[in-house]
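pasting Electron transport complex subunit RsxE for the record, 53 residues
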Amino acid sequence: IRPYPEMGKHQPAIIHEFIKGLWEENPVLISLLGLCPALAVTNSAINGLAMGL
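structre below
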């Protein structure tokens, strides 16, 4: 007898929620990506072009 028989039915939803929390709705990741232009300081145009790609 399984203690939680309904757990197998919700497995794709759990994985989707985990991925959504990790990539789609992660405030730390969004804040870090928002800081990228402010942190991209260089002393040459070639390095700036490389950071832009």
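The longest helix spans residues 11-24.
The chain has a mean pLDDT of 72.
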